[in-house]
Amino acid sequence: MACSIVQFCYFQDLQAARDFLFPHLREETPSGAVRRDPSKSNWEDDGWGAWEETEPQEPEEEGNTCKTQKTSWLQDCVLSLSPTNDLMVIARGQKAVFLVPKWKYSDKGKEEMQFAVGWSGSLNVEEGERVTSALCIPLASQKRSSTGRPDWTCIVVGFTSGYVRFYTENGVLLLAQLLNEDPVLQLKCRTYEIPRHPGVTEQNEELSILYPVAIVTIDGFSLFQSLRACRNQVAKAAASGNENIQPPPLAYKKWGLQDIDTIIDHASIGIMTLSPFDQMKTASNIGGFNAAIKNSPPAMSQYITVGSNPFTGFFYALEGSTQPLLSHVALAVASKLTSALFNAASGWLGWKSKHEEEAVQKQKPKVEPATPLAVRFGLPDSRRHGESICLSPCNTLAAVTDDFGRVILLDVARGIAIRMWKGYRDAQIGWIQIVEDLHERVPEKADFSPFGNTQGPSRVAQFLVIYAPRRGILEVWSTQQGPRVGAFNVGKHCRLLYPGYKIMGLNNVTSQSWQPQTYQICLVDPVSGSVKTVNVPFHLALSDKKCERAKDMHLVKKLASLLKTRPPNLDSVETQIKELILDIKYPATKKQALESILASERLPFSCLRNITQTLMDTLKNQELESIDEGLLQFCANKLKLLHLYESVSQLNSLDFHSDTPFSDNDLAVLLRLDEKELLKLQALLEKYKEEKTRTATVRFSDDKDGVLPVKTFLEYLEYEKDVINIKKISEEEYVALGSFFFWKCLHGESSTEDMCHTLESAGLSPQLLLSLLLSVWLSKEKDILDKPQSVCCLHTMLSLLSKMKVAIDETWDSQSVSPWWQQMRTACIQSENNGAALLSAHVGHSVAAQISNNMTEKTFSQTVLGADSEALTDSWEALSLDTEYWKLLLKQLEDCLILQTLLHSKANSPASKPSSLQAEPLPRLSVKKLLAGGKGGIADSVAKWIFKQDFSPEVLKLANKERDAENPDEPKEGINRGLPEVSEVDMNLGAIPDLLHLAYKQFPCSLELDVLHAHCCWEYVVQWNKDPEEARFFVRSIEHLKHILNAHVQNGIALMMWNTFLVKRFSAATYLMDKVGKSPKDRLCRRDVGMSDTAMTSFLGSCLDLLQTLMEADVSRDEMQAPVLDTEDAWLTVEGPISIVELALEQKHVHYPLVEHHSVLCSVLYAVMRFALKTVKPLSLFDSKGKNAFFKDLTSIQLLPSGEMDPNFISVRQQFLLKVVSAAVQAQHSVVKDKESSEEAPSAPFGKDQDWPVLAVDLAHHLQVSEDVIRRHYVGELYNYGVDHLGEEAILQVHDREVLASQLLVLTGQRLAHALLHTQTREGMELLARLPPTLCTWLKAMNPQDLQNTEVPIATTAKLVNKVIELLPENHGQYSLALHLIEAVEAISTPSL
């Protein structure tokens, strides 16, 4: 209970204020530098007169000045904070920033208050004037519902021109007053405070303004009314734009201070009345011994100034000696047409002509002369110059700082210095007033009490707060002559703010209604960007000799140090602790000491019990009226908990072993199961245990199960009204407490009956015990499954708990469900340890049936006696209702167990490295999660497991056939459709097909094959979307999509995939490829589409598959009905999100031509990427209608190209398709030496490649290009690459054989030209000479370089010539040339033979 410094607010962005006030610093500061290290400053209360003396620096000094300002820019600012903490003003020169607090969440997620910029702008009206002082004054609300609360905050600003201006929180000018033509040095405010006792004079509210030679005081009531009127006027003007009512004038007094050289700061003490002695003394000093004395002492206003000659001056102004002056107020009205801030002189005449406005601006308001006021006395010290003065809250003391680094404490009434602190240069000072809390007084005998009784007036203590920026320390001193009670290291760049006032506009009635939270003192730390306040306990004001609290705190510290040491002798330590705690006087401190003792880890249990018992006995022996009931009750509660801990520990330490043998037959009887059901349950649990053991993480054996330190035990429990409750603790702590009570019992190592009796008698409710028991059972699943005998122990424990008095209410309605069993079922439903939950549910069902039977027998006996034939029926109905809930739960838990076993299973690790997405662990299942997961929750969890294992869709088919369980090798031949390596994968599956088959059998509806494929398809595409580089995920998703048999589901899933994940990337890829005119490079693909070029190629291929599947599904859906989605009986109550399949069935029909249109574009893009084609702009192949239809909703009707296409488009399309065919043949048949090793791998990086020649012909059909041209080109390319046998097959599909024959004739000539002209052999030259001149000329005209494969045997060429002869009609012009070629080929081939 010492001093503390607490931060209650933060700055959201202090850099924004600095950038606005110091633009030159913003330009030179790197972005973000200030945020990382907020501007450091040495905030200090400079004399405000320094503003006038600022002169332009010499050019060579500008660099140094700017460098200094970067670290201490706040030194040059005027700062003010509202006492209600709802506004802060930072001003410099002509600019100001208004900061308002807002509640926001911090980075750690904690809600905190942050100062954010609410308004910023320029405040100057006259040229050259600067801000010298500012105040934020909260004004009280006049509404009856919020009496005493702040309504709004007025900002008062003083300028070097002598003007004082008043603004709203939004920077709207309300009033402007010129009271003196000298600069304003300081503004101070005093608000109403209720007098603490009748002897204190009630003070009026006022605003005091200090000028170099004058003080102006404005009456608070007059100011409050004027500001309210101005604010209302501004609101009306903003609404209507034509109202202008001048507010009532301000009443103020102006005193000209004389006989003093320099004034820097001032304090207005208020009205004071002298005692008769002081009155006579003052009259004698002024008028001599003959002075006349009035009957009643006059009331005077006292002012104190600090400066030089005298260092401190005391002024007294007699009340009534001068009449208040009435000011001429300039009112500024905000309207929609004019700015909120403009010249005060012209603002209230805002609708006059420009000429009149200029005339008014030049005419300054009249300045009233000051009433002279001479200094009565002072503290003369010619060398000392005062810098600031701060008045205490009770108006009796004032602290003054000077240029010698001293802080001087003044007695205001006597006018003398009573204390001085040295070594506080540039100090900033403030006050804290603390009111005593009467409840903290010691309720003991009057002899020992420092107060005598607990009633009486609250005492008030004053503390002086001094901040020394040179040392970076904040100190709190007790006044007047008290010690230093607190010190904090706060840094060298803070600023101490002490408003010294509260809310203006209150009176003795309204100030008692509602007290807003006000901070007496605040420390602004620009380094950490926080605002802090200081909390000081009242007892620190009391002297050490008389303060029982200080003595108690000393004893507590001594006790804490004693508890930290490791004592050699526990008995002596116990004695010392008893003496210390009995010496403490305050009950609250005694309680604190006992809590620290009980929280100690080093004291044994016996020591804690003895100390608590001793304190308890001592309290009971005191007189009845001096006993603190709270402390007595606290001790009694802790003692009861210690006795409970002792009893449980003794029971756990006894050597208890049950000798009863345990067999499977006993277990079956206990759980009310027949032999077949028990075997099924054991088989399920065995499978579950095997699979869980394989995937479980390493767990070291914990020998501390069932052991709990007494310190922890006391922390977990609390005793209230003879009932023990558990505090809010974590799940692990809850299990630890339950283990302490029940772990030994569940192992048969402790007496179950004794433990239940002990816990019940201690005050623990059966419901709480059941919750603890189940938490232990469900969390220790591994140990329980390894020891079946624990089921018997659980049965016994549950039976005993159920027989407790308030466990099962015998009067509960027979038609409703028992809350006791519902609590147990809820725990099983929420548990993720399904094996333990299933066992506990069987035990609960058995015990519930047993108790119900007992109740039935009891009812039956009463029925026989009472001859009531209907009672038995009612009893059986109640039994059947509760039993149905148990049966439902058992079925749900069994299903969940089978599903969890499947999800635990894992195939042998695949050869390929799994993705990081596949390495993420699956969440554990519980019945509650499955019920909340919606209709698709079960299939979704299995789909996540399939994704993690990366199984082929064929594996799901395998497990769906019952014969696979008997002979899993049989179907391997027929499963190679899309995945040749399935047989290899299947060999490594282990028990997974059996588990899958069991899951299918358990969930015939939820895991129906189409539903499962749909969820798998969606899961894969979701994961692919997270990491588009994993193209195989998208390929696998399309595989699952193709395996969906129902066209309605297939159509919906494909459409959802397209709209959700694909169309944006697809459109981005299209525009990118159209922009670059070729297959884009990797960098561009990553930038625009978000994936590499390789992944984008696969992406486009999969998109093509999806669009083709979508078209097939659209055709097939008319031939089949939509599926009916059923749910298993045990899971009819599922709630949660709608399933993927249900969403798919809600999708609209697609517009087939539009899908086909996109499919054509996708084929074009895929071809460009697959073969790295150049000079191809995909969108140039389509007209404007075609382009506009792209990327629209596939279910919408779009205007598509129809009729004859422009020949230019057809020509471009034909050129593109010919390129594709050439590239496809080249990729497949280009002759390279290492053909086998290097060509086949890249041809299909992700699965089976397209049949490009067939696809090109299909595209030609859609693009209105002649299909025969494409086929002829394909044949020509095949012969060009020397694949004549494939060319002969392709010829059969060509319709215009004559044109084809002409093309092949040229190719034959190229082959012969190469053989005769380019080999340059002697035989070749001789043969060439024998050929006919026509043929020879034709051969020389051929260019063999166009041939892709020149190594074709001459016999193959001979076949080609014969084929040409077959295709050419005899009347063709080149027929004779073909005949010559036959002779030439025969002549060439003859020598070789």
UniProtKB/TrEMBL annotation:
The segment annotated Disordered runs over: 30-68
Which residue intervals are annotated with compositional bias (Acidic residues) in the record?
A: 44-63
Swiss-Prot/TrEMBL keywords: Cytoplasm, GTPase activation
One Pfam family here:
RAB3GAP2_N
Q: Which domain of life is it from?
A: Eukaryota
Q: Which GO terms describe its cellular component?
A: cytoplasm
Q: Where in the cell is it found?
A: Cytoplasm
Basic and acidic residues composition-biased segments: 30-43
InterPro entries cross-referenced by the UniProt entry: Rab3GAP2, RAB3GAP2_C, RAB3GAP_N
Q: Which parts of the sequence belong to the Rab3GAP regulatory subunit C-terminal domain?
A: 769-1369
Residue intervals of the Rab3-GAP regulatory subunit N-terminal domain: 73-497
Question: Recorded GO terms, molecular function?
Answer: GTPase activator activity
Q: What is its main location?
A: cytoplasm
UniProt family annotation: Belongs to the Rab3-GAP regulatory subunit family.
Q: What is this protein called?
A: Rab3 GTPase-activating protein non-catalytic subunit
Q: Which organism is it from?
A: Ursus maritimus (Polar bear)
